[in-house]
Amino acid sequence: MDGLQPARPIIEIRDIHMSFHVNARTVTVFDGFSYAIPERSFLSIIGPSGCGKSTLLRLIAGLERPTGGDIVFDGRSIDAPPKGMIYVFQQYAKSIFPWRTVYQNIEFGLRAQKKVGRDEARAKCLDYVKLVGLEGYEDYYPAQLSGGMQQRVAIARALIGEPKVLLMDEPFSALDAMTRAILQELLLKIWQTIPITILFVTHDVDEAVFLSGKIIALGRAPAVLREEVTVDLPYPRDQIGTRSDPRFTAIQQRLFANIFLQEKSLAGA
Ligand SMILES: Nc1ncnc2c1ncn2[C@@H]1O[C@H](COP(=O)(O)OP(=O)(O)O)[C@@H](O)[C@H]1O
Ligand SMILES: [Mg+2]
Q: Within the chain, which residue ranges are assigned CATH 3.40.50.300?
């Protein structure tokens, strides 16, 4: 992003409250949380396990309703899963059908689109196969692919419907380090190619710094905004160049120290 255009919020979280009742106990995850997410941004959400990251994504996705407050997407209050937003899970197997080929899985992502002609649909599917680097694998079934390739299928299938917002909940955490690094670069390339806002949940500080324009760190439930960091590193980014930038290391270390010290004190260590 060039930073020249005024970034209007595409999502506004307004004073949300969220409590769960578990065995006569009430767990309050949000007790008055607000945040505005600018259009086309890449925002990562980090924080200790159980602080409410997944809950926040599910609320934004309209999969659950807050017990108080409001979340506005594109000017409208979310009361059901809105069109224009899509969710990619950590367990890629959950996002794709094992009985469909790569091509058929990606094509499935077109189902919510208005009817397009056969040739147009085919061309579009092949564009998205290419976008995620799966040319030549169109006829493979998920079980014949590596985890990283399955996650590429899930991403293509999510994006072919042209959502405005992509919600990703620890999407790469089940992958090995190298595959993860490659998919991080791919995701950034995609984000720079198509107009989309990405909300990315991770517990990996490095990953958040590498990918994001902004990072919010949440504290333990009820979640508060502990820290908001602007990652002032230029795009396009690449694993080798970006990670060797002293600013990368500085941000990564500061954020890591902040979270680690909090965790340590909470653990009583
Ligand atoms: N459906 C649910 N029922 C009861 N408690 C839940 C539910 N979903 C989340 N929680 C609780 O809310 C808190 C936040 O969970 P979650 O959003 O999954 O955290 P994170 O993703 O940051 O690890 C946890 O204490 C969890 O046990
Ligand atoms: Mg989670």
A: 36-64+78-84+164-254
Distance CA 66, CA 34 (A): 12
Residue type (1 letter), 200: F
Q: How far is the CA of 54 from the centre of ligand 2 (A)?
A: 4
pLDDT in tens, 137-150: 999 999 999 999 99
For the chain, give the longest Cα–Cα distance. 62
Cβ within 8 Å of residue 250, ≥6 positions away: none
**C-beta of 53 in contact with ligand 1 (< 6 A):** yes
Tokens of 124: 């579009």
The highest-level CATH class for domain 36-64+78-84+164-254 is alpha beta
Quote the CA–CA distance of 209 and 198 in Å, as a whole number: 14
Cα–Cα separations (whole angstroms), residue 130 to 60, 148, 171: 29, 15, 20
pTM of the model: 0.94
Question: What residue's CA is closest to ligand 1, atom 8?
Answer: 55
